[in-house]
Amino acid sequence: MKSRLAVLGVIGVILAPTLPLPAAAASFDCERTDLAADEKVICETRALNDADVKMVTTFDILTSLLAMGNRDVLREEQSAWLKKRQACGGDAACLTTAYAERMKQLNEAYEGLSRPL
Q: Single GO cellular component annotation (predicted)?
């Protein structure tokens, strides 16, 4: 498990220099004028912005590793999670918890991948 998480961490470190800083979170454009309350707080809070980048990167990696049917399930789960995140509004503590829970789910999905021996 630690080695798999380490691989995701290494990928994150490799990709981090190419990612934009707080002006743009990974999943949306912070420069938009019509940001929702949750998006505003994510853009204004470095830890939440970083959590967004990590979550989207992990989601994208997982999506590329899953079979087509499982990709659809992962995307449906992501849509449900986004609604939960939006329900947090401008509550940074709620958003922090939502990201932690989603990362736990994504890490568990990664752990559950079938791999050839």
A: extracellular region
